[in-house]
């Protein structure tokens, strides 16, 4: 078993094909990493009181924290953390019990809280705070604390979202190749 992976109550993270996990990251419990996902240094992800699912070609950068909210009588499903395909989670971002769509960039140091829903094709600026239950509509840049819709994404930004994910897939492949040569 990968040293960064830990079981919780008998559940160990599930890895699909071509996943990269840095040895300094810690992933605990009910976590699923889809094909070509990359987890970078010092990421902490706990799927202990609910589950975490990260989509294909997504990347979670250095120092990010991923967690969930437990199920309660008032909230029988709790808040799992669901991250779509082609998502870039910036350095030191914190995601807690939210749902992130496809082709999203979460800027460095951003905080996304319980029940927030980030639709597809969104950029969240560095240092932004997405309050609990907030919905960020598709096709916009959001910035601030609390986050506010700044403007529609331009064509270059829309093109950049899958390109960012592709860049991390290539980098992840280089890291995997290097580790095979050690």
UniProtKB/TrEMBL annotation:
CDD domains: LbH_gamma_CA_like (cd04645). Pfam families: Hexapep. InterPro entries: Hexapep (IPR001451), LbH_gamma_CA-like (IPR047324), Transf_Hexapept/Carb_Anhydrase (IPR050484), Trimer_LpxA-like_sf (IPR011004). It comes from the Bacteria. PANTHER family: DYNACTIN SUBUNIT P25, PROTEIN YRDA. This is Carbonic anhydrase, family 3. It comes from Photobacterium profundum (strain SS9). The gene is T4105.
